Amino acid sequence: MAFRFTTSRLTPRLATRAGLTTAVGLSVYRAPALRTMSTQTGAKKSGSNTALFLGLAALGGAAGYYYHNSTHSLAPQKTESKPVDYEQVYKDIADILEDNDYDDGSFGPVLVRLAWHASGTYDKDSKTGGSNAASMRFAPESEHGANAGLKVARDLLEPIKAKYPGISYGDLWTLAGVVAIQELGGPTIAWRPGRTDGVSAQSCTPDGRLPDAGKKEDHIRDIFYRMGFNDQEIVALTGAHALGRCHTDRSGFDGPWSEQPTIFSNEYFKVIAGRKWVKKDLPNGGWQWVDKNSDTTIMMLPAEISMYNDKAFRPYFDLYAKDNDRFFEDFSKAFGTLMELGVPFKGDEKVYRFKTTNA
């Protein structure tokens, strides 16, 4: 079981409330059963607030309004759905991020992973995939190895979907990723609504569209080039691995990318550039890179070290390790693009730049 930290549980929101200052953040690559790179989740421990979520869902799950007619029978009264208050949705998501009984004390990393996996299936040639249909609600996509563990994130957001029935799942999931990044100390990310949910498994994308963390840099390029990203954007997006950790029961890998997995910063790049990495065999027959000079469980995935050693990728790793502001600027643009892949916007949608709840 990966270690826990007392100090690293102080997310920027908690630190602000406590009058403390946090300095670093952590990176998150995750590889599911198929060894996919993305953010990871851990098993929910005792003391969970599952009952609370179920209670909220029950309160918010009404399908319509009813009235008594002259014979006191009930008949449905159709009403137009209210406009969604996205500012309030942001705040409601922010309020459920922290949970000391979950992983490193925050649901933030798994929400980022949900947003990324919902969006990263896009294929620019066939114009399929992306966040528009929220197709991970359906099998077989919900059961793809790359999406192992994401049910916890989808379920976490259900009470909010019930409270705001007018928001699509695609909008909710991508907005949750934005909330998590910003509330955990990351940059402001422009976001707009406009996604329409699919109604069946016909919207599901084929398995294998997300990165395999056990492969090399050419595979990573193939995956991201298919979406339309360039090398600089690929490395910037990799910096989301400032958040979270891997779990052997999900990805086959184990451990966090730095000592503070709930703070978003350029720490991921500092760690990969500043430490000596050695191979470590895993009980499941796989292997990963670990910090040679540390007794912690800090790790890197095979694909990450291959990327770092690539001549074209390397300058961006070094740049972001030295310049957090540049990383934030480039990440914000690339992540905003990722969230919109495959979405047929009409062009008149309001663009939101949300303020953090502790601003």
Automatic annotation (TrEMBL):
GO biological process: cellular response to oxidative stress; hydrogen peroxide catabolic process; response to reactive oxygen species
InterPro entries the record matches: Ccp1-like, Haem_peroxidase, Haem_peroxidase_sf, Peroxidase_I, Peroxidases_AS, Peroxidases_heam-ligand_BS
EC number per UniProt: 1.11.1.-
Single GO MF descriptor: cytochrome-c peroxidase activity
Gene Ontology CC annotations of this record: mitochondrial intermembrane space; mitochondrial matrix
Gene3D superfamilies, alphabetized: 1.10.520.10, Peroxidase, domain 2
Reaction catalysed by this enzyme: 2 Fe(II)-[cytochrome c] + H2O2 + 2 H(+) = 2 Fe(III)-[cytochrome c] + 2 H2O
Domain of life: Eukaryota
Pfam families for the chain: peroxidase (PF00141)
Main localization, broad class: mitochondrion
Occurrences of domain Plant heme peroxidase family profile (ranges): 93-359
Subcellular location: Mitochondrion intermembrane space; Mitochondrion matrix
Alphabetically ordered keywords of this record: Heme, Iron, Metal-binding, Mitochondrion, Oxidoreductase, Peroxidase, Transit peptide
Function (record text): Destroys radicals which are normally produced within the cells and which are toxic to biological systems.
Entry's family note: Belongs to the peroxidase family. Cytochrome c peroxidase subfamily.
UniProt-recorded name of the protein: Peroxidase
Organism name: Hesseltinella vesiculosa
Lineage, highest ranks first: Eukaryota, Fungi, Fungi incertae sedis, Mucoromycota, Mucoromycotina
